[in-house]
Specification:
Blueprint lengths: L1 H25 L4 H5 E9 L6 E9 L4 H14 L15 E6 L4 E6 L2 H4 L5 H16 L7 E6 L26
Parallel strand pairs: 4-5
Antiparallel strand pairs: 1-2, 3-4
Length: about 170
Amino acid sequence: MDRKLHILNVALAVIAGLAVCMVFLNTPEKSYSSDQSVVHLYFADRENRFLIAEDRAVLHSDEPADLGRIIIKELMGGPREGLMQTIPAGTKLRAFYITQDGIAYVDLTGEIAEEHPGGVKSELLTIYSMVNSLILNISEINAVKILIGGGESLTLTGHIDLRLPFKADMLLIR
């Protein structure tokens, strides 16, 4: 009798285990877990002295260029709380691509320069807001080249040379 009882207990345990597995296998996953990623977007602090990261959940993409476009558009939308926007309102992304040698080209409309408040520090934070946000979130990007209106520009507002690609600058981040 004990042997039959033992076999019955084992059979019930196996059936219960299978039922639990079926519940987990048939439970739908939350949609945002697989199609969103958290990125660090860099915006200016209130004193316009440093860049501070704001974590943001964005649509996930396995394509580095698609993620780059998303990051730039999120930066253009500005911070959610407590930080300062670094890209002037009205600026649009004309084009974005990444070369095989890891240089990201960010082509922005003329509003980036026309509506910019000016000043060395403000110009520096605008540039490195984009550069650091791209390089520190996308491993395929080593440097960022900024274009305005489809072509090269000497500077954004007269202070920082835009002719060469930029590497990340960790000294601007707090």
